[in-house]
Amino acid sequence: MSDRPHRHRHDEGERFVAEWRRNATHLEASGLYDPAEEHDACGVGLVCAIDGKPRRDVVTAGIEALKVLWHRGAVDADGKTGDGAGIHVQIPQDFFKDHIRHTGHEPGEARLAVGMIFLPRTDFAAQERCRCIVEGEILAMGYGIYGWRQVPIDISVIGEKANATRPEIEQILIANMKGTGARRFEIDLYIIRRRIEKQVLAESLRDFYICSLSCRSVIYKGMFLAEQLTAFYPDLLDARFVSSFAIYHQRYSTNTFPTWPLAQPFRMLAHNGEINTLLGNVNWMKAHEPRMAHEWFGDHMGDLLPIVQPGSSDSMALDAVFEVLVRADRSVPMVKTMLIPEAWSNQPSLAPELHDLYSYTNSVIEPWDGPAAICAFGGQWAMASVDRNGLRPMRYTITTDGMLICGSETGMVRIDDAEIAEKGRVGPGQMIAVDLANGKLYRDRELKDMLAHGRPYGKWTRHVKKLDDLIKTGADERVEFAREELRRRQLSVGWSLEDLEMVLHPMAEDGKEAVGSMGDDTPVAVLSEHHRGMHHYFRQNFSQVTNPPIDSLRESRVMSLTTRLGNLGNILIEDESQCHLLRLSSPVLTNGEFEAMRAYMGSTAARIDCTFETERADGSLRAALSRICQEAEDAVRGGYQHLILSDKSVSAARAAIPMILAVGAVHAHLVRKKLRTFCSLNVRSAECMDVHYFAVLIGVGATTVNAYLAQETLADRHRRGLFGTVAYEEVLQRYRHAVDQGLLKIMSKMGIAVISAYRGGYNFEALGLSRSLVAEFFPGMPSRISGLGLGGIEHNLRALHARAYAEDYAALPVGGFYKYRRGGEAHAWQGALIHTLQSAVATDSYSTFKKYSEATRRLAPVALRDLLDFAPKKPAISIDEVESITEIRKRFVTPGMSLGALGPEAHETLNIAMNRIGAKADSGEGGEDPARYKPKPNGDNANSAIKQVSSGRFGVTAEYLNNCRELEIKVAQGAKPGEGGQLPGFKVTEMIARLRHSTPGVMLISPPPHHDIYSIEDLAQLIYDLKQINPDCRVCVKLVSRSGIGTIAAGVAKAKADVILISGHVGGTGASPVSSIKFAGTPWEMGLSEVHQILTLNRLRHRIKLRTDGGIKTGRDVVIAAMLGAEEYGVGTAALIAMGCIMVRQCHSNTCPVGVCTQDSKLRAKFEGTPERVVNLFTFIAEEVREILASLGARSLNEVIGRTDLLAQVSRGSAHLDDLDLNQILAQADPGDYPRYCTLEGRNEVPDTLDAQILKDAKPLLEDGEKMQLAYNIRNTLRAIGTRLSSAITRKYGMVGLPPGHITLRLRGSAGQSLGAFAVQGLRLEVFGDANDYVGKGLSGGEIVLRPGTSVAYDAHVNTIIGNTVLYGATAGKLFAAGQAGERFAVRNSGASAVIEGCGSNGCEYMTGGVVVILGPVGDNFAAGMTGGMAFVYDPSDELARHINPESVLWQRIEVPHWENVCRALIEEHREATQSRFTAALLNDWDRESAKFWQIVPKEMVARLSHPLKRDAAAARA
Amino acid sequence: MPRNLLKFVDIAKRMPEKRAPEARRHDFREIYGEFEAARAKEQASRCSQCGVPFCQVHCPLHNNIPDWLMLTAEGRLEEAYEISAATNNMPEVCGRICPQDRLCEGNCVIEKGFDSVTIGSVEKYITETAFKEGWVKPPRPMRELETSIGIVGAGPGGLAAAEMLRRRGYRIHVYDRYDRVGGLLVYGIPNFKLEKSVVERRAKLLAEGGVAFHLECEIGSDIAFAELRARHAALLIATGVYRARDIHAPGAGLGNIVPALEYLTASNRTGLGDKVPHYLDGSLDAQGKNVVVIGGGDTAMDCVRTAVRQGAKSVKCLYRRNRANMPGSQREVHHAEEEGVEFVWLSAPEAFLGDGNVRGVRAIRMRLDVADSAGRQTPQPIENSHFSVDSTLVIKALGFDPEDLPSMFGAPELALTRWGTLKIDHKSMMTSLDGVFAAGDIVRGASLVVWAIRDGRDAAERIHAYLTAKAGSHARSAAE
To answer: What whole-number distance in Å separates Cα of residue A1158 and Cα of residue A1070?
Structure first.
């Protein structure tokens, strides 16, 4: 806390704000920074009186809960400026009426309304004008005004920055002169608020914001730390402040600029999470608006529009839509069901009436998808709920005196054990709500039943026509084109043999996309000298940090491609007219299906030709697009419900318009004309072949897609026998399956589960398309560098068309995009370069290296940096004055390449080389051989300096984490951001299995997300945990370049990371789908520059190091990276090449002929790499860096970091481009008094936890090895208990050095997150109470026991005791919990044993080892992707089959005594440890009960078990 | 995605059946059989489908080798042929006689440790299959052009250019001083490497496609160079290099010391059924002789192996460097050794002994210096290490130099380089005379057939560009 004088503080805050605004405006103008990219996440909660009667303790409980949520928010460096917190409560009528009486008026009996308003503080004229507008609108509506009340505040508790932006905070008190009922009054206030907001906007008045304007409730919020709420707003301490509910929120933002209105709660809801589908949702809302009407709004409907204000955050936008729906007479639970439905379309176990309900809501509006814990209040309802995937926690407690307490954590409100009636959690897609008017609590199923029976949804949804039944049976798949016609058409869309062989054929043969490796070293499309399809200019977006990607394979139950076609209705009403729609199970149609659909549509469909005449002059493309848009508009106005865009009429005289462009144009045009919801947009595209093209088409607005030329091509190949005996229909089905799966994968990368929320969402970033073209046809899609415009596209199309229809038509070109071919696309790694570099490092010849470096420079531009050159500002200096090679080499890193991808020899060679020069090698995912923790006899150190922590958590033990200088959290990977991975069984050798704690020969799965990072505050928690288990190391967070990465990085910096790594899209990889390698992520130049600028803007840059990688291969690359903001540099591919890699690009095949990237011993024997060669490479690069620095007059790299002014663009690409302008990445933020590089010594420290005390108390153990027992009272703010102690034990005694239970910690209360993370053998944690998420994360041998407090009255067995994602990545140890767990119990467990009494969805997902016994119900998708270990589930009512994911496991009743004993022994241990009454009863009746257990075993493991599973086999073996 | 490929780890390299040395040393038939379909498929499937295909990088024609290997492995031979033929006018020739061990196969990434893919044999297999199946068609232009182009030299370079230009519809006239089409392919290369029917087949296709051949037509004597230029809108000189390098040593003038090409031509003509007097009189027949071949290139290899087949008593090859540093193909050396040839490495002839006819060769042993900056080791004589070899026939295979074309053609304005080759502008491939182009050995000096094909194709492109530009400027000036 600052003890500086107030005045001084104030100045600093003002200065920060002024500088920030100046910088932000500058960066925004240069296009780099977009405030819309900012994210937030947080902690949220609801306290509620179940009887609906206002009471004081509801408010005090809400305040108390907020105070123990601080760790889910972030704090500025001043220790006071929080990211925002607030509370939403009922209006205490007495309190305000007393106030009015004090001012000399007599308030009437009627309910008054209160507006909580932020006014401009320093601009008095503006302040006065705002007051006038507010008053004017209230009066205009016929209501009266009691006056304004200046809200008492204490500004001494807020930080200097918060104070600098603080608004004038006042309340307007409104009299209900009209005597309208509360409901009408509330709606009038809503209309008034919207009118005020529009007027203020129209007059461009800044800093005005209405927190709430209601006769029911009021919101107090601001930019302080949560615990300062009541200090800042003393109102809340007044005993008259009573309420039947309180919604509270603590925000964690990716920004440091204190923005008061962004604090939550909002008018209806408070949200923890992120809406991934925001842009699409907002666009669709715009489309819905013209049809919106409701009796309650009457003529005021227009006042309410637009529903979503421009520049809203995701939560704000959701709140706005939520609000209008609630105001239009829908209940809060119904609105939640409409906007955030549970996963329903692939859930056969769902009750039919619920299916009808969701089917109905799906017909009305597209879902808002993404992680979301929501607490909402509206009308008579208060509700807490969670998204379809359950990606945010929501725990609740019901007290014996009728209070419901919900929130992100358990234990936020202190309640005596004896007063607890129930402890539970809100699961995926679930809600819990209180009908405040009737004083009744509704649990999830009750709510949904109530909703489902509210209307005859079943009857209504019978109007939905299921097209599948109609068109997918016996569609006539006739072939149209003869060979020559086919070839010309293929040529006319620029296909090559490679496209057909590498992309199309595998899809139709294997039903999935092909896999490639070693990244992408071809030019970004805009720099290419070859024709590139339109889709090449679209880069896929993906989730990182602020929201998780989804595993579309293992969690397919939540995914849906269900597509509705036709005329959408008025979303504000509720009737059967909304169901007159067509529905398809997938937007992907074969030719026959499309024809059948077309036939069904009959006269309701209009066909629009998407070709243009090539004979006409230049500009005919634009003319054609205008024609298409006009035809579309006319058709819709003419009443057509379906548009069909087709380019089939291509001929010698007509060329196809790229369908992406046509669809984008029509979709954007119809949205602008407010006609989009009146029709479906169905396309037949020639160019469309790969999944990325499908995704782009749908992402820019297409309803259904038919890739007719791809199908004709398959037909031709089928005719030629290339599919063997597979039937043609089967070929088409496989192709379609591949496309469907690919679409799901692309959506899931973004964390989007339903395609209707993906459609039209522009979940891409344009790379190299002209900005004006993007603005016109793809409005809202980010486009950072300009480039190809309509003129250039037409130029390319004409050339392509001319070649296809030339007289001497030729064979398809061979290609060269995926693999180098002479005459095809350029590749950065060409044969001669590879040989020259290898020769340079082998002969230690710097002059040869220079040849390589110069030849690299002479290549055609491949990366954006190739358009840049140095622009020295100072005279050159002697190279002797420049810092040494040794200094520079320390900045190099070989990026994470796992043992498993690399052969052990190559992996070790890199480590040794990097350690020799004081640089760092990254272990990659997959553990490390403990033998490497000690140097070799010759002194070489083969231990990776950086240990990676990735989503699979393979081999991430306490020991692993303690043996490194840095820990890297790999959030995303350049070659496949947003995706997980699989190590196929044949690559899992004995050694790899040992390091990864798995079984040789059995496949291993890395999930797409870290299951303990669904949100930014989760990342902060993981960083916290890692800094506990290793008290010295730095923590690095690896991100992949994309637009918006800057704000994510700011959030990461605030989460106390020490290094941020920005990977470019080019990243090499062992294996990933080719479309991911080619089309996801952006160049590091863009991401790095953005991160550097945003961190500088937020004054965070000097506290964190930036590292970058992706295709860096010369000293020049390094210096450019430095100028764009990086101080450390990853060199991967070049390092592999130095060791002998020759870019065979078959890493995924285990056939690397030079033994670099293979586990096959025959091939590994070919490895010829040496540490010396790697050292030479880095020495050469460093030497070249020195030469460049000398030429720039710089003595060290630090002098040029962030100095984009030393760079100049020297090329603007090819002549037909609009303007390829790199100014964005060259923009600079003013760093103020701070350096542009990291000056932090050591690391960014995190607050201590209980372990600081434990370490003091445990001296006898740590010094003398004494056996101990320590006891403490705990709260949820004490996180990662036992982790730091585990580090101390590991360092002193090793991970298995102490006998089990050597030190016992007895803990009473609710434990914070990550209880016992990475706990090692010897440590036993006994909790009397409960615990939050991540219990036993990475458990490394410790024991954790949880049981309810001794005096509880409730039945522990049916209550929740531990949170989500327990035992994630555990490698050894035990957990016993007398109660139920949340979602994802034992996810990726590879060795721990556990007994619990029930769990939520996705239990035992990806498990590879250990034994789990569950003595109660399990949630959905149990054992998905489980490839090792074993589970036992007690299931007396035979329900497991409905919940289990059968893909990788089989299940049976226990047949063999051996396994029964395994199960029983664990249960006995559980009873012993927890004193569980339920368990005691179970064991008592064991003979009867044992038959009710299921044994669940991975299929791959059956043959590898020590004992047989089946009775017969056991007999046979005996 | 490679399907059924990357099999090199499990499948060993196997060439097509090679006839046993004992069987093959008595005739001139090709020594390799052909792949059976299954074997070709299997061997093609060994390809690693590299990201950077060094085979293609090091192929003068940049053949899309991995692609046609993949197609072969999948049994899609017609497509394989289409891809192969798209970059090569005579893949059946390259498949047989290219020194693959120095080009594609030598750079195959699995060469080290797994032995390369048998690229040449697969190439031959693909093309032979294509001939059998009738996929190989004569050039058939979509439309006939009026413009006529003359090509001097019916060797691989001239033929490649002829085909490429004919496909575009030009009228093509090929002139050659010999009586058969094919140049070195027919008279220089022995049958056991390339059977003459293979060359004839190509020649026939071209003729069917409308290419006019004017054989036994010597430029400068049978037809004036100026006349030739007047007849054609463009002219391509692709005569090759024919002047044998000589050796200057005591006794070099003795009888039975013959240049390699004379020796090989006599043998090839004889094989073709011609009556060759110097063969018949024994002076160019190795039968019963102790043959010494001097040189280490591919021509020397052809000579020694021809000599074996003619029934020589002994065949020795003298070369001044060692095996690793010879220019010829290692594979050929291996074949020759199998057939009984003795290589005398590191030895240079000093004098030819005998009177009248040669009786022996005196040579001196050599040693190799340290490598120069180009990596080549210069041979140095070892003092007092003389030795003699008996020899009744000495064949000089020391390489070829260009003939003096300006004087032969009566065109002194045709500029030469200091090596006597034709000087061209490397961008346009045009000589110092407008509309006169040159390609192949006469430009680059003695080189490989595959380079001649490449040059012929490039020249065709340049000639087309030249003629198009000229037509354009004519059209423009006509319009003005």
So the answer is: 10
The pLDDT tens digits for A495-509 are 999 999 999 999 999
Residue A1142 in contact with partner chain B when CB distance is under 8 A: yes
- Across the interface, whether the CB atoms of B6 and A501 are under 8 A apart is answered no
Q: Tell me: the pLDDT tens digits for A1040-1088?
A: 999 889 999 999 999 999 999 999 988 766 678 888 889 999 999 999 9
User: Alpha-carbon distance B86 to A740, whole Å?
Assistant: 36
**Distance, CA of A298 to CA of A319 (rounded, Å):** 22
- Mark out chain B residues that contact chain A at CB-CB < 8 A: 1-3, 6, 8-9, 48-54, 56-58, 62, 64, 66-67, 70, 74, 76, 82-83, 86, 109-110, 112-114, 141-143, 167-168
What is the DSSP secondary structure assignment for residue A1354, as one 8-state letter? Answer: S
Report the C-alpha gap between A42 and A413 in whole angstroms: 17
Examine the pLDDT at A1373 and tell me if it is beyond 90: yes
| Chain B residue at shortest CA distance from A500 | B1
User: Is the Cα dihedral A358, A359, A364, A367 positive or negative?
Assistant: positive
| Tokens standing for residue A385 | 């709920």
d(CA A20, CA A14): 10
Q: Is the pLDDT of residue A532 over 80?
A: yes
Distance from CA of A940 to the nearest CA of B (A): 29
Q: What is the pLDDT of residues B348-382, one digit of tens each?
A: 999 999 989 999 999 999 999 888 776 778 899 99
Contact B185, B157 (CB under 8 A): no
Q: Nearest-CA neighbor of A808 among B461, B167, B147?
A: B167
Give the other-Cβ count within 10 Å of A95's Cβ.
Answer: 16
- Among chain B residues, the shortest Cα distance to A824 is held by B64
Q: Is A514 on the interface with B (CB under 8 A)?
A: yes
* Cβ-Cβ contacts under 8 Å, A720 against chain B: 76
Cα separation, B53 vs A498, whole angstroms:
14
**Cβ atoms within 10 Å of A1468's Cβ, excluding its own:** 15
Of A811, A831, A1162, the CB nearest to B54: A831
Closest-CA distance of chain B to residue A1149, Å = 8
Q: Which of A484, A507, A819 to mutate to test the interface with B (most CBs of B within 10 A)?
A: A819
Contact A1006, A1425 (CB under 8 A): no
Q: Which residues contact A861 (CB under 8 A, 6 or more apart)?
A: A523, A527, A867, A1211, A1213
Nearest to A263 by CA among A220, A217, A216: A220
Is A406 known to be catalytic? no
Give the gap in angstroms from C-alpha B263 to the nearest C-alpha of chain A.
40
Question: Residue range A1280-1298: average pLDDT?
Answer: 97
From A720, A821, A1151, residue closest to B6, measured CB to CB: A1151
CB contact at 8 A, A274 and A1015: yes
Q: What is the pLDDT of residues B218-244, one digit of tens each?
A: 999 999 999 999 999 999 999 999 999
Least confident of A190-194, A884-888, A1041-1045, A1322-1326: A1041-1045
Give the number of other CB atoms < 10 A from CB of residue B3. Answer: 16
Distance from C-alpha of A66 to C-alpha of A52, rounded to nearest angstrom? 22
ipTM: 0.90
Residue A9 has pLDDT above 80, yes or no: no
Residues A1260, A1267: Cα–Cα separation, whole Å: 8
Measured between beta carbons, the chain A residues lying within 8 angstroms of B74 are 722
pLDDT tens per residue across span A1375-1431? 999 999 999 999 999 999 999 999 999 999 999 999 999 999 999 999 999 999 999
How many whole angstroms from its chain centre is CA B471? 35
- The token duo for B480 is 């003005």
Whether pLDDT at B1 is above 60:
no
How far is CA A1508 from each of CA A1012, A1398, A1432, rounded to the nearest angstrom? 35, 27, 16
